[in-house]
Write a structure and sequence with these properties.
By secondary structure, the protein is an alpha/beta fold. The protein is 44% helix and 20% strand. The chain has 22 helices and 21 strands. The protein is elongated, with a radius of gyration of 32 Å. It starts with a strand and ends in a 6-residue tail after the last helix.
Length: 563
Amino acid sequence: MKPRIIVCGLGRTGYKIFRLLRQQGALVVGIHHKPISGETAANVIVGELYEASILQAAGIEEAHTLVIATSDDELNLSIMMQARVLNPQIRIINRFYNTNLGERLDQTLANHLSMSVVGLAAPVFTFAALGNKAIGQIKLLQQTWPIQEEYIHENHPWKGKKLSDLWEDPSRMLIYYVPIEGKLNLVSAVLSEQQLRVGDRLIIGAQPRIRQPRKSLMNRLLKVISNIRQFQKHAQSVVVMAIVLLVIILIATFTYYLSTKLNTSFIDSLYFAVGMITGAGGNDKVVEHAPDSIKFFTVIMMLVGAAVFGIWYAMLTDFVLGTRLKQFWDAARIPQRHHYIVCGLSGIGIRIVQQLHHSGHEVVVIETDVNNRFVNTARGMSIPIILADASFRATLQASNIHTATAVLAVTSNDATNLEIALKAKALAPQIPVIVNYADPDFAGMAQQVFDFEAVLSPAELAAPAFAAAALGGRIIGNGIIADSLWVAFATVITPIHPFCDEWVKDVAKFADFVPLYVEINNETVQGWDLLETILSPGDVLYLTMPATRLNQLWREEGRGMGV
């Protein structure tokens, strides 16, 4: 009998996971706070997600795995605790936005795996911006590799090429193969020197691009100087008031200096004028015996100067201690060319910014909310931020869109993202535009209608990882090809492991998996050497296989192959 899986919270991501698990043949039951059109009462239990009676109605006490997929961390935590009380042994896949909390729970609780939709989806957005037609990600050799699908068509450069010729390339890792006719696993196709035909499909992992060197301090300084003209408005009011104050001081200074009855030097006149206007005090003897006209002039200067100085001081304080100085500095550091424009510091937006920045790329952020909690995070990485509406032409032009490498519209509002993307395309048709569209059912439609470079749905990208994790194992990558879910994971070879003392090429053909590489005594074995390796206790084998086969192995072997 197949393990019973419960998916709790059938929102955009949860329902996608639910449908995907059912598509793979898993015995799955959903729990949602309201009925779902087209689903029967037996398939979806309706009620409060954290109530014991609702979880029991879904079969929590007999279930093997619970997937908690709501977008509310607090609610997910409540569901998890209630589930563990009802079934202490149940395996829980928990969606958490707070990754620190999720990691802590993973360390504290057995059979608990926290996953983040943002964390799973953000790399795909980043890869798309970098020019990769990524459909997912996989963690290999201490790096995150973008996953791409290659469909062999008439004009494809790989048409007629032997799979064995592609197997050895270290910059590319073959992950899965679906021939146009018949059933032939990848390892068998490689060993038999199968040629690629029109209609064949390949899933490959592409090695991440080499990071670009960061610019020197001198280049950064030159960039600030070259951009000063664009940001005069940030300091214009402060400068104007400073000029007015200086004029008042000079008027007073020359009045005292040129007065024949005062007989004061220019320095004494300046000292008295500044002290009198700023309130710091001065040599009162300068006007002590002055005529009434000079005294009256001094009174006027005191009142006017105090008002102007007070206003200028307040503006200067706001500029230095408030947000204007940061805005000025951010604006002055906007890259001139070859940068990435991220519109919206949403959860996925800040992840994309971090990944691009850590890869050595220059980034500029456009965000409307000055109180956005990720603004300081971005500034902490020295990322320039434009606090304005990205859907305005002037804002995009201020970000130097015409010389940018790509634009990513990743706010939390689908309509806003489309508006930004359309405006960006109107200003710079040649610039690639990557759009975040939360609704997975309409993301593909938006791509087709507007013909952007990529319209991606985080739910669509993350659901396969949740589904794969629910089927068993610590998943390091996943994807879908020809409506079949495949997973990548690592397995430690033990003396009782079914692969122990076997040739990799033999067990790969028998168990229908694709070996990626094996770690032997902290050394990595790949390519043809991998196929000719005999697995021994202590080796760690990284492989991909159909998710349905992983489920069967888990049931039949019962040894918890994933690590």
